[in-house]
Amino acid sequence: MKKKILAAIAAGLITLGSFGVSDAASREEIAAINVQTASDFQFWNEDSPTKAKIIEFVEDVTNPYSSNYIPPEDRVATFDMDGTFYCETAPIYFQEAMFLHRVLEDKNYTAPKKYLDLAKKIKPKVYAKEKLTPAESKLYFEGLTAVYAGMTIDEYRAYVRNFMQDNETGLSNLKRGEAFYLPMVEIISYLSNNGFQVYIDSACSFYTTRELIEGVIPIHSDRILGSDFGLTSTNMGKDNPHDHFYDRFKEKIVIAGTPLKDNAKTIKIFSILNQIGKRPVLAFGNSGGDSGMLEYTLQNNKYRSMSFFVICDDTERELGNLKRAKSDTELALKRGWNPISMHDEFKTIYGDNVRRIN
């Protein structure tokens, strides 16, 4: 019995030693994050103002004796994904990086010439963080769906899963499917465990988002708001989908390849109204694309409300940009959004052996 106890203790120490401390946390370890009370946080610095604000807010609005009490059915929190609780800088958003992989590296796919020429032209610019021309950006955006035309959603999600196994660009010891900000995952867990309905309101496609977070982040798939793929049927042809009779024996639903219906800025508010039906009391973002969600949360809210803005100001453990970080902090302070400094407040981001390598 004594040997079994010692073995269990040793196994626990090994787990704690690797979980968010040395190498990047695996998807299984991220999924195991469980923050119920203030004492459960592991990945925030002790003096973090954000952690203190979140804890105080939650304890206040969940206290039935507080004048700021919020009933559970109205405790809605919304999170952007890329750059808010998942990496967006290696070197670009997940979807955009996967487009370059699909066109330039997938040996089982022959891209249309216009996308192949585009990918060859813009890849050096993307990796150098150089701005694309309006024409390049427009074609790039179109390509995000066009290069998957004809895939079923299951096939697309399998493609996302496969791409998740690639190493992140510019960061050591980190796969794309592991690139979650551990401190922010703790916030999602803490809110979920304290009666909040947590939603993702992202510009990333909800099909991509669902695959990235499935089994890792405690948010149900029906609480994901995102950009929308156009769909069609293999037998629909030029039929209007309102008039088309779908024959389950002869056809299947596939990606049409039409441009994404983008979920950004003010459209994020429309998504909240259409798919949630309640104003959030907490919102978390990291860029101007999240401004609608952050502002709407604070506007004439009948409950106490707060918005937070993640600042990528860490140039050693993440691919931070100090010039952008400065302007983002100024914007957050001007608009009344609480800035979150990754450099100052995160004890670890992905794990201590995940470092910038370029």
List the main descriptive attributes of the protein structure presented here.
6-stranded parallel sheet; 358 residues; two-stranded antiparallel ribbon; Rossmann fold; 2 domains; 13 helices; alpha/beta; disordered N terminus
Q: Would you list the SSEs in sequence order as H and E?
A: HHHEHHHHHEHEEEHEHEHEH
**The first-level CATH class name of the largest domain:** Alpha Beta
Gross CATH architecture of the largest domain: 3-Layer(aba) Sandwich
Shape: globular
Q: Report the biggest beta sheet as strand number plus sense, adding barrel if it closes.
A: 6 strands, parallel
CATH topology type of the largest domain: Rossmann fold
Q: Could you give the order of strands across the largest sheet?
A: 3-2-1-6-7-8
- Taken as a percent bin, the fraction of beta residues is 5-15%
* CATH level-four homologous superfamily name of the largest domain: HAD superfamily/HAD-like
How many helix segments? 13
Provide the structure class: alpha/beta
User: First CA to last CA: what distance?
Assistant: 50 Å
> What is the CA-atom radius of gyration, in angstroms?
21 Å
Number of strands: 8
Mean pLDDT, nearest integer?
A: 93
Uncertain spans, ≥5 residues at pLDDT below 50? 1-21
